[in-house]
Amino acid sequence: MKKKDIFDKIMELPFFRIFEPFYKKYKEILLYLFFGILTMAVSIVSYAICNAVFKINALIANVISWILAVLFAFYTNRIWVFYSKTNSMRELIVQMISFCSGRIVTLIIEEVILFLFITNLHYASMKVKIVAQIVVVILNYIISKLWVFNK
């Protein structure tokens, strides 16, 4: 039996027990969505600070926000979503490289979306960033599930 994590313990609280069967059935997806939303928040807030506050170009601000979001996502996905253990530093590094490689693919997709809709079509920067993040979260789950943290 797996050791219970903080989320399992929360679901055992009286108020949350009615949701426990649903939680157990869909735990991985629910936790991915939870941490995906937090990762999206890290990305959007850091992007907004870089772009709106410091007036950094949208594409450069996006790369900075991407780095911060990827670091956050790697650790949360590895520990709480996919329960991925490694037996050596080498395995951890290989896993991190795979994770970052998948995220580079979605970064390129996001950069293309931002370039097309902000730079070329002059849509509102934050609206485009939020829509692009939704696309990225979905693609990142697929990549993480099938390629990086597959069991």
What attributes does this structure have?
single chain; 151 residues; mainly alpha
What report would you give on this structure?
This protein has helices at residues 6-11, 20-53, 58-81, 89-120, 125-148. The chain has 151 residues and is mainly alpha-helical. Helix 2 (20-53) packs antiparallel against helix 3 (58-81), helix 2 crosses helix 5 and helix 4 runs antiparallel to helix 5 (125-148). The protein starts with 5 loop residues before the first helix and ends with a helix. It has one domain.
| Largest sheet report | none
| Secondary structure tally, helices | 5
Poorly predicted residue ranges: none
- Gross morphology is globular
Mean pLDDT: 92
Write the layout of secondary structure elements.
Layout: H1 6-11, H2 20-53, H3 58-81, H4 89-120, H5 125-148
